[in-house]
Write a structure and sequence with these properties.
The chain is an alpha/beta fold. The longest helix has 19 residues.
Length: 409
């Protein structure tokens, strides 16, 4: 057998609404009384507007949350956390290198008491790249063991796709990225810095435990999606070159695949995967990959689904607190102009509701997430473009259109 990368793969490994896996099936099912109590409990959401246009798009997401809560019939409460580049600078943080913490341990401990975190954007034009990202995003992922980065790649109606002759039926898959290991652990260092003899290392820290739990999550998701074209999970790596860490992933993939005989399996080298994203995205159902490769291919995925203004993602701990965010960044040049696209932030809210509902067995939240997703699908045909300032309405207008679609749905 020859894989789509044009070379024999080291392991034989193949759309509807997006669904997310519930808690592992090994857990005891809830009783009726417990389930009813859960669905009547008020959901608590921590809100981090963050930097740039983050607070603006989150505002529109919360507007949609209010509408869908009323429609479905659930209660919620939110609390704002002022964690941003502005706060870092106001507290005396060095804009060139990290000098004080971005978020305190006390704040992290409080965030752990919520059901979910809704994040706007991270990135400040006056703070060097990496300071806020490491100090907030990576710290929260590690502290809360958000070991899955979930990135749906879904082309909505009337959203232009840069790929010729490809439409919504062709671009509809999900990337499951391992989120707490690999190069992002920060292991490594620099010696003789600033000299011609400078030496730097960055360690790709991979464990069988970390790879296997991401792979198992991906298999469960693939089974839940139940793609009518056929359930298929594709492992993406570069095991012909990264022979040590790559083989750990391949071995775990082989082993876990035996538990899912109903799911077809496939393998791509990461460079070949990028090629197939562009040539035949309809080949994919669910993809599982490591941290660095997942970071790269999901940005390519965002572009083929219409751009960063559309793409949403979740940092998932299936048994803990997860964090959901739009992918487009803080877009400082558009801050305060009411022109940024909030669709990705509203999509992140849909994920927050669906994922939290699935992981806790709360059917009302699952329904709410599906309603928001359908409202987005009803809204995008009204938008002549997904680009900032060219959407046919303001940021607030787009939020209002989604609210209208929720209310009519």
């Amino acid at each position: 057998m020859t894989g789509r990368m044009g070379r024999k793969p080291p392991c034989p490994i193949r759309s509807g609404p997006i669904h997310y896996p519930a808690r592992f099936s090994s857990e005891m099912p809830m009783g009726l009384a417990e389930r009813q109590a859960l669905m009547s409990r008020k959901i608590r959401i921590a809100v981090i507007g963050g930097d740039g246009t983050g607070p603006e798009v989150v505002r529109e997401g919360l507007k949609v949350l209010q509408a869908v809560a009323k429609k479905v019939g659930f209660e919620y409460e939110t609390k704002d956390f002022n964690v941003s580049g502005d706060r870092y600078l106001a507290r005396g943080g060095d804009p060139k290198e990290a000098s004080i913490e971005i978020i305190s341990q006390a704040e992290i401990d409080e965030l752990k008491t919520f059901d979910a975190i809704y994040l706007g954007a991270v990135g400040h034009p006056d703070v060097a790249p990496g300071i806020l990202e490491k100090g907030l995003l990576l710290r929260l992922r590690f502290a809360m063991d958000q070991y899955i980065n979930l990135r749906p790649v879904k082309l909505y109606p009337n959203v232009p796709c840069p790929l010729k002759d490809k439409g919504p039926k062709d671009v509809d898959f999900v990337v499951v990225r391992e989120n707490t290991e690999g190069i992002y652990t920060g292991m490594g260092g620099v010696q003789y810095k600033g000299t011609p003899q400078e030496v730097s290392t960055q360690v790709n820290c991979t464990t069988r435990f970390g790879a296997e739990r991401a792979i198992r999550y991906a298999f469960e998701l693939c089974r839940k999606r139940n793609n009518p074209k056929g359930k298929m999970l594709t492992l993406v790596h570069k095991c012909n070159v990264l022979t040590y860490v790559g083989q750990t992933w391949v071995n775990a993939f082989h082993q876990v695949a035996k538990e899912y005989p109903d799911i077809k399996t496939d393998y791509n080298h990461v460079d070949a995967c990028c090629m197939w994203f562009v040539k035949n995205p309809e080949f994919y159902d669910v993809i599982v990959t490591d941290n660095i490769f997942g970071d790269i291919i999901t940005d390519l995925g965002a572009m083929i689904q219409g751009g960063m203004g559309v793409a949403a993602g979740g940092n998932i701990n299936p048994k803990g607190v997860s964090m959901f965010e739009p992918i487009g960044g803080s877009a400082p040049k558009y801050t305060g102009k009411n022109v940024i696209n909030p669709i990705a932030a509203i999509g992140a809210l849909a994920m927050l509701l669906s994922e939290t509902g699935n992981n806790t067995g709360n059917a009302k939240l699952v329904e709410a997430g599906e309603r928001v997703e359908k409202a987005i699908i009803a809204t995008t045909p009204r938008m002549p473009s997904q680009s900032a300032g060219k959407m046919g309405g303001t940021t607030m207008d787009i939020g209002d259109w989604v609210v209208e679609a929720v209310q009519k749905g």
